[in-house]
Amino acid sequence: MQPLKIGITCYPTYGGSGVVATELGKALSERGHVIHFISYSLPFRLRTFSENIFYHEVDINTYPLFEYPPYSISLASKMAEVMCYEELDLVHVHYAIPHAISAFLAREIQRDRASLTHQCKEAKIVTTLHGTDITLVGNDPSLSGAVRLGINQSDMVTTVSDYLRKKTIEDFSPTCSIHVVKNFVDTTEFSRKADSERFRAAFATKDEHILIHLSNFRPLKRVKDVIRIFEKVHREIPSRLLLVGDGVERAEAEHLARDLKISDCVRFLGKQEAVVELLSIADVMLMPSESESFGLAALEAMSCGVPVVCSNIGGLPELVTHGFNGFLSEVGAIEAMASHVLHILDSRVRWETFSQNARQTALQFDTEQIVPIYEHLYHDVLAS
After folding, report:
1. What would the mean pLDDT of 129-142 be, rounded to a whole number?
2. Residue 340 has pLDDT above 80, yes or no
3. Do 253 and 140 share a structural domain?
4. Contact in structure between 43 and 21 (CB atoms under 8 Å)
5. Residues 176 and 215 occupy one common structural domain
6. How far apart are CA 33 and CA 243, in angstroms?
7. Where are the alpha helices (DSSP H) in 123-161?
8. What does the DSSP assignment read for 7-47?
9. Which 8-state DSSP code applies to residue 320?
10. Is 191 a domain residue?
11. What SS3 class is residue 269?
12. Which residue in 161, 228, 269, 375 has its CB near the most CB atoms, within 10 A?
């Protein structure tokens, strides 16, 4: 396929959408495409140099008149500048608000500039919806119209799960078609490390099991449920809990662990770069969320051979098969989730079966399986 010049805009902080966007850009660059990241800071997973990757920082100017700096306008101006001067073929934005709206405005700026100079070719807009831009932000009446406009003004729209596609159509009745391109993982990088036992010794003894949870600790992640599930598991078997990430729910979760007198067995690790190393020592991943459009953290865990015990919501059933590579329960079903964890850990042979099944499932979502789908969609939209 012909190499393309692609702009990518995402939230550069911890979170599934930023991870997917950054990993997509890296994978595309390795396939010969030229990638221009446009954001207010460097995406946190953009750690290595590539001659095909460029970064453009959005300057957010402050004026006494503005109580809140107009980021979406600054982003649109920077997008338009990069579109024109780097001659982008398309801009792939992740999240409807504000990124799809900013891309639409950038294209209008680009068209206006072209009418004067006749030097700027028009870039196409591809928007990927990741979840809360539809299920949370999109449900806000003050923003729903903007979300729908961002969707309909895109040249192509994708969602990360069948669930999210259905939800988008139900809630917004878009005039454009929506394609499902599921999230992906580099299964070579995310694989259980052979020397993990040495690392494991820093957190647990040989006879203790390790449960893990990774998130941004927002209320919908139900981190306190994680603590309660672990408390019930810990009553029955020697175990430790690792919590990776940070956010508004951390303080309450720490208090709960102390109240339940299990704080000595719970480690709050904060934001971590060594995700693969931590997943490599885990026995079960807990994800009791009340909303997950896909569950990228679950996929990364499964790629490392970690079975997942999670809520039966959103896109998780498209990834986790009950009784095969993990278990699904109703939101808030703490007793059931604890029972599922104990069932997996009760037998080493059973755990190994679940672990192998988790890994085999993750291989279906490998980068090399998913990224070519995006490439084909890019060329389709450019040919239309």
Report:
1. 71
2. yes
3. no
4. yes
5. no
6. 37
7. 132-135, 141-152
8. EEE---SSSHHHHHHHHHHHHHHHTT-EEEEEESS--TT--
9. P
10. no
11. strand
12. 161
